Amino acid sequence: VVDRRAIQLPARAARPARQAHLELRFGAIELARPQSKFLRHLPKSLPLAVVDVCEINAGPGAEPLHWRLITSHEIATVDDAWRIVEWYKQRWIIEQFFRVLKTQGLKLEDSQIGTADRLLKLVAIAAKAAVITIQLLQARDGGQQPIRVAFNDNEINALAALNRQLEARSKRLKNPHPPDSLTWQPGSSAALAVG
């Protein structure tokens, strides 16, 4: 064991958020080239680094975390190894982005656009929509981002007008969130869905 540290694990579908106490080990390895005669043009080996983190004292009912991470990044210090762990922690948000973009949200893979130029434009628009969707989900789950990370002034003004219109209909539709927070927008959307 080279180091110990506590990290915050965000909530997942089947797991509540929790603090995980981890033990860290790391080292260098060499991955040998396969013995196939068709691969002799490749180098005999590939230098890699391994970062191994194990959760200690996971608590009752919690499956202990154990990550073995293999990377081509050089790891010379404990801080280098923890940086790899932090990068790996971000994989969930990246997976969520592609899930929203491709399958569960915008269904980009179902697009029938025929030219690369048009498809590129669609991907750019869909990527922005996927990022905003994820930001709104994070805000709903307790994130504290300002509304300006997802919306420009014109969009905020349109949301404010919509919010005023909805709140005029009923006190039940009053948006409880501060108007400068990203949580304020989902309140407007929820009111729209109800109204």
Automatic annotation (TrEMBL):
The protein, known as: Transposase IS4-like domain-containing protein
Domain spans labelled Transposase IS4-like: 77-126
Classification of source organism: Bacteria, Pseudomonadati, Pseudomonadota, Alphaproteobacteria, Hyphomicrobiales
Residue numbers spanned by region Disordered: 171-195
Protein's GO biological process: DNA transposition
One Gene Ontology term of the molecular function aspect: transposase activity
Source organism, top-level taxon: Bacteria
Pfam families: DDE_Tnp_1
